[in-house]
Amino acid sequence: MVAKLTPYDWRNLYQNGRYKSVDKNGVQNVPFPEMTYQTHKDIIDAWPSLANFAAEHGVKYDTAKGWRRRNSIPPRYWPAIVATAGQRNLRHVTFELLSTIKAAVEQPRAS
User: Fold this and answer.
1) Residue ranges of E strands in the chain
2) How far apart are CA 32 and CA 29, in angstroms?
3) In sequence order, which residues have a C-beta less than 8 Å from that of residue 61 and are 6 or more positions away?
4) 35 - beta bridge partners?
């Protein structure tokens, strides 16, 4: 069974290049958990900080903050997002995921 973690949980479990799991005997290193991203906000929150995310993608902090608040990353930035996610070993951040999330948000609501 794969652990489903939020980006906040994921960041807090990461320590010195390894994930940690606390059991009755103390801290024990465990394998990389499966991360699920359900929103663009989840993807942004996977970076160590919003300032770090903004700097890596060449945008102002306030711009990245607006993306997170609106839960929407503009498509023209997706290539950079996917590339830097790959460098950070966030292997599930793909063009397909970004477009799937955008399509789900843009679907018209039934009246």
Assistant:
1) 14-15, 18-23, 26-30
2) 9
3) 50, 51, 54
4) 5
pLDDT at 92 (0 to 100): 86
Does the model's pTM come out above 0.70? no
What count of other Cβ atoms lies within 10 Å of the Cβ of residue 39?
A: 16
Tokens of 85: 């996610």
Residue-wise pLDDT for 22-75, tens only, equals 544 454 444 444 557 889 999 999 888 999 999 999 999 999 999 999 999 999
- Residue 71 region, left (φ>0) first, then alpha (ψ -120 to 50), else beta? left
Give the fold, CATH level 3, of 37-111.
Answer: 434 Repressor (Amino-terminal Domain) (1.10.260)
CB atoms within 10 A of CB 54: 20
Tell which residue, 3, 20, 72, has the closest CA to residue 42: 72
Domain with CATH 1.10.260 in the chain: 37-111
Say what the pLDDT of residue 110 is.
Answer: 55
